Structures are given as C-alpha cells and as structure tokens.
Amino acid sequence: MRKLLLYLCLIVLLILGIAAYNYNNHTALQGNASIVPTSLQPVRLQIPRLHIDAGIINVGLTSSGQMDAPVSQAINSPYWTNAFWYDQGAAPGQVGNAVIAGHVDRVGGDPALFWSLGTLKTGDPIYVTAVNQKTFTFIVQRVVAYPVTAPGDQVLNEIFGPTSERHLNLITCSGTWTAQGYDQRLVVFTTQVP
C-alpha cells in the first residue's frame, strides 16, 4: 500500500513539475489527445533485450489536472505488467516526445514491468505497435537517472517538451528506496528509425 501511494505521489509530482515549467515559460502542454489520430494510439510495447511484450494503457489527466496513475492493491493487477502512455502528448510514431511509463515493482516489492529497464544499452531496439497494427522501431540513445527532488526545466523539456524528431522516452522509478519512495527517476531516451 505504501509503495503504491508513493508511485502515485511521484507521478503526480512529475506532472506538477511539468505544469510549473510550462506555466513559468508560458508554454502550453505539448499536444493533447484530440490531435493523436486514433490509428496511432499505441497498444503493445516490446523490448526484446528485457523479454518484455506488454499491453499499453492510455493515461491522461484527472479532473484536478494531474496525470492519471493507475494503482491497485492486487499483486496480480494488470497495472504491474502493462505500460502507460501519456496520451496528452505525442503518440509513438508522431513528431514529438512520446512518453511511456511503467512500474519498477509491485505491492510487496516484487518486480514489475520495468524492473530491469536500467539494463538497456545504447543501440537496443524497442518496438511499439499502434492500434492500426503498424509497428514503430526505436533505438536506445541513452539511459539516464535523475534525482527525484530536482529534475530541472531542461530535463523536463528533454522528456516532454517539443522536438522536430520522433522520440520515445520510457520512465520508471530507480535508485534507493527511502521513506518517501525511490530517490531517482530512470529515463530511457530513444529515437525512431525507419
């Protein structure tokens, strides 16, 4: 229960940081769900190196303006084995930074979908299949861990901000477990290839 609440709080903090960055820079949130063609909505994430073949759940904003974060008390909940696409931004395959998150562990501390995300290496392929059955290939460019307390505007812009290229950024918790949760966020930056 404590870890679940921590994950929810961490995701909310990330979204609040993005909103604060956008407000301070008078920048609208990058995209919204209405501009993502239905045919591009992602449904499957495959990472061969990690033996991941998972469904993708769309998440947006709650009525209070925060990113929706699926939680569950059940150890076998699909929330631990599925990824979450932030549908207020770009879709994988579109110009922009598409963002997909996943839990690192589940209630009780057992491994969840992104448990081994930090072991990805530069050049590893990642595949995202859209609802139209088109598969997009992304290649890992770098894997970076950031302190959870101070991601900074530059980091938030790299993950969620505008770009003229097609990127997919995968996010999960990492580092050391503290009384407030994990002390880092792990981000895998990738670029789409033909």
Question: How would you characterize this protein structure?
Answer:
This protein has 194 residues and is an alpha+beta fold. The chain has 2 helices and 8 strands. The chain has a single domain, classed as Beta Barrel (Sortase, Chain: A). The protein has an 8-stranded mixed barrel. A hairpin with a 2-residue loop joins strand 7 and strand 8. The longest helix has 23 residues. It is globular and about 40 Å long.
List the helices and strands and how they pair.
Blueprint: H1 2-24, E1 42-47, E2 52-59, E3 83-86, E4 96-101, E5 125-130, E6 135-147, H2 152-160, E7 166-178, E8 181-193
Parallel strand pairs: 2-3, 4-7
Antiparallel strand pairs: 1-2, 1-5, 3-4, 5-6, 6-8, 7-8
**Total domain modules:** 1
Low-confidence stretches: 19-34
* CATH C-level class: Mainly Beta
CATH superfamily: Sortase
The biggest beta sheet reads:
8 strands, mixed, barrel
The SSE string, one letter per element, is HEEEEEEHEE
Round the Cα radius of gyration to an integer and report it. 15 Å
Percent helix among the residues?
A: 10-25%
| Arithmetic mean of pLDDT | 82
Strand order of the largest sheet: 1-2-3-4-7-8-6-5
User: Within the CATH hierarchy, at the fold level, what is the topology?
Assistant: Sortase, Chain: A
- How many individual helices? 2
Q: Shape from CA axes?
A: globular
- The separation of the N and C termini measures 43 Å
What is the annotated CATH architecture? Beta Barrel
Quote the beta fraction. 35-45%
